[in-house]
Amino acid sequence: DESVWQAYAAQEAVTQDGHRIEIGANIGTAADARYAVEQGAEGIGLLRTELIYMAEASLPDEEMQFNVYKEIVRVMGDKSVIIRTLDIGGDKELSYLKIPKEMNPFLGYRAIRLCLDQKPLFVTQLRAILRASAYGKIKIMFPMISGIEEWRSARSIVEEVKGQLRTEGRVFDENIQVGIMVEVPSVAVMARQFAREVDFFSIGTNDLVQYTLAVDRMNEKIDYLYDHFNPAIINLLQTVVNAAHAAGKFVGMCGGMAGDPKAVPLLLALGLDELSMSATAIRKVKHAVSQMELTKCKALLEDVLKMSTAQDIRLKVESFCENNG
Ligand code: PEP
Ligand code: MG
């Protein structure tokens, strides 16, 4: 019944025993932001800025980007907006940005690697984001970080751009938070080191599953191997969340797992602070959270951490969900 579902959109996601988790949306445009608010988004956990670049015939300039980011922030009011810097390459191409054909594009010249190599392009985007930060609660997030040097280089370019803007007398949020996607296994493994330096993490399970299990996320022939309930993934998630919290840092999730109602009990038990998903999944996930008891979810996680196959975990989680909601 539509009115019952609409009620879930307006509610916060709170378990039976009072544990709250923040629910955000993954978006690409200002129109998406308006729809996400209607569906009950409490923030934007992932703005995929490459969608803005992909909609243009040539590189969008600073002013154009500034206007888009500013409009999204205006739509979101006092809610926070995590803007991910350009994540191009892999399966996402720009006609006007010639990247030589590669044998393994998902392991190649993409995302933050490309931005660090093409600094003017990166600086233009950071200027637009920082200027928009004067109008709302923006956070900056880097995609595809694989090592601490990359993070430090990208972070220092943000500082450099802040310096430029200061000199020009432009307003921006001096305390803007800067974080990273956790989507490359090397970062998940080294999460404790990263947690000391970043302001926040957001776990990108789409790529984290692909890289950890060595399973192409686009290849249907092997999609039976692509499973976020694989025990290697659950263990990595635990490593990342615990590392973040030990350092007092916020950790969200913006990959497809965050929008899977069946994953909700494990994600609650792991202790994620936020789940960000496509707007259409929000009501289902809020409903799932409202059916759960955190203490039972924690007992489930204990059991799951002893299991060694994705199949066993999936069956266990499915029967748990049937009995709880
Ligand atoms: C991810 O990898 O999980 C993610 C959210 O980013 P994208 O799907 O854009 O690669
Ligand atoms: Mg990704």
UniProtKB/TrEMBL annotation:
Its cofactor is Mg(2+). Its EC number is 2.7.3.9. Residues 6-293 form the PEP-utilising enzyme C-terminal domain. Transmembrane segments: none annotated. It comes from the Bacteria. It is an enzyme of class 2 (transferase). It catalyses: L-histidyl-[protein] + phosphoenolpyruvate = N(pros)-phospho-L-histidyl-[protein] + pyruvate. Belongs to the PEP-utilizing enzyme family. General (non sugar-specific) component of the phosphoenolpyruvate-dependent sugar phosphotransferase system (sugar PTS). This major carbohydrate active-transport system catalyzes the phosphorylation of incoming sugar substrates concomitantly with their translocation across the cell membrane. Enzyme I transfers the phosphoryl group from phosphoenolpyruvate (PEP) to the phosphoryl carrier protein (HPr). This is Phosphoenolpyruvate-protein phosphotransferase. It comes from Sporomusa acidovorans (strain ATCC 49682 / DSM 3132 / Mol). The gene is ptsI_1.
